[in-house]
Amino acid sequence: MWLGALVCAVWAGLLATGFWTCAQRSDRVRMVAPDVWPDVVAVVPARNEGDVIARSLASLIAQDYPGDFRIIMVDDNSEDDTAAIAGSLGSARLAVLRGAPLAAGWTGKLWAVHQGIAAAGSPAYLWLSDADIEHAPDTLRKLVGIACAPGPQTEGPETEGPDTQGRHLVSFMAKLSCATWAERALVPAFIWFFMMLYPFNWINRQGGLAKYVAGAAGGCMLVRASSLARAGGIGAMRGALIDDCTLGKLIKQQGPIWLGLTQTSRSIRPYAGAGEIFAMIARSAYAQLRYNPALLVATVAGLALVFGGPWLAALAGVGLAKGLGLAACAMMLFAYQPILGFYARAPLWALGLPLVAAFYTGATLWSAISYYRGAGGMWKGRAQAGV
C-alpha cells in the first residue's frame, strides 16, 4: 500500500504546483503599447541552417514593429550556403556577419550570439531568435508589449527608478512541429517535462520561493540590453549548454521575467523520426543534471516512481493500494490534458506517458554515456559538453 500512497501524494503535490495548466500564454497576458517604441536588434546565430534560414529571416524582416528594428545574422562557420542564402534576401533591415572561429571555453551558439551583440550597438532590447524559428508579423509587438506592461516588482531598493519597471526578459516557448507520428507521441511531452522542471507560473512571479525559479526558451527571447550588461553579458554564461535557462536565471536577478507558450513563434525544423528527438534530448539532458552521477541515478529512479509507480500500484495492488494507484493514474492523465489540447492531440495520447517517460529516461542515460565518451552536447558536428 505504501507505493500507492506515495505516488498519490507525489501527483497531488505536482498538481498543486500548477505547472501543467498551460495558463501562461502570449495571448492571455497583459500587454502595453509604449508611448515610444524602443529600438530593438534581433541577433540570430546560424550554423548549417541553409534549409530553414530563408523562412526564419523572412519572418523577422516582415515584422510590423513601429520602432527602429534591425537584424544581425551571425554565420557560425557554416559548412553550407547559410550565409549566401541570408545575403540574397537583400533587406535593409538585415546584416550578415561572418563569425570568427570558435573561441576556447565558449559553446558555438553563445560565441555567435556574443559577436552579434557586440555588433548591435546600444539598442534598448535584444531579440535572441534561433535560426529555425518562424515568427508571425506581430511577434515583436507582443514581446515588447509584454515587456513594457507592469509586472511583479522586485523586493528591495533596486525597485527604484524607471529601469526596473516592466519585465527584463520576455520569452516565448516556440510551438514545435507536431505532424509525424513520432512528433505527436513525443513533442507534447517534451514541453510538458520542461514545464515540470521550470514551472512557468513560478518563473513569472518574484516573491517567496518563486524568486529561485527562473527559465526561458531559447528560440525566442527579448532581453533588456542594460539588464544583460549588468548581469555580465553573454560572457557570464559562455560555456552553458542550456543557455536559455541560464540566461533566465541571470536576468531574474535583475528583475521580473516572463515565459509563456505561444502560437505566434513556430519551429520550422521537423523531426523525421524518434531518433532525431532522442538526439535532441540527449544533447543537454546530462548538463541539466550538472554532470552529476548521483543526480542521474536519482532522476532515473524518480521517473520510474512518478510515471511507472501509479500503473504498477493500479495493476498489481489490491484494495486500498489499487484505489490509490488508480487515483494517481487519474491525476497523471488529467495533468497531461492541457498540453495535449495546446498541440491539438486527442486525450487518449496520455495513456502512453509511461512509455514516453521511458524514452526520455533512455535519452538521459545516453546523454551521460556520451559525455563520458567525450561526445557530450553534440550539435552541428561539435561536442560541447563541459567546454
Rough outline = globular
Which regions contain 5 or more consecutive residues with pLDDT less than 50? 153-164
The number of domains: 2
Question: What is the CATH level 1 assignment of the largest domain?
Answer: Alpha Beta
The CATH homologous superfamily of the largest domain is termed Spore Coat Polysaccharide Biosynthesis Protein SpsA, Chain A
Strand content: 5-15%
**Largest beta sheet, briefly?**
8 strands, mixed
Give the integer mean of the pLDDT values.
91
The CATH architecture classification of the largest domain is Alpha-Beta Complex
**Range of helix content:** 40-55%
Short key terms for the protein model shown above:
2 domains, two-stranded antiparallel ribbon, globular, Spore Coat Polysaccharide Biosynthesis Protein SpsA, Chain A, eight-stranded mixed sheet, 387 residues, single chain, alpha/beta, 14 helices
Describe this structure in words.
This protein is α/β, with parallel strands linked by helices and 387 residues long. It has two domains: 2-19 and 278-383, no CATH class; 22-274, Spore Coat Polysaccharide Biosynthesis Protein SpsA, Chain A (Alpha-Beta Complex), CATH 3.90.550.10. Helices cover 44% and strands 14% of the residues. It is built from 14 helices and ten strands. The chain has helices spanning 2-17, 53-61, 82-87, 108-119, 139-148, 181-197, 200-203, 225-230, 243-252, 274-282, 285-288, 293-316, 320-342, 353-372; strands at residues 40-46, 69-75, 94-98, 125-129, 133-135, 169-175, 220-224, 257-267, 378-379, 382-383. The protein has an eight-stranded mixed β-sheet with strand order 3-2-1-4-7-6-8-5, sandwiched between helices. The protein has a two-stranded antiparallel ribbon with strand order 9-10. Helix 10 packs across helix 14 (353-372), helix 12 crosses helix 13 and helix 12 packs antiparallel against helix 14. Residues 153-164 have low confidence and may be disordered.
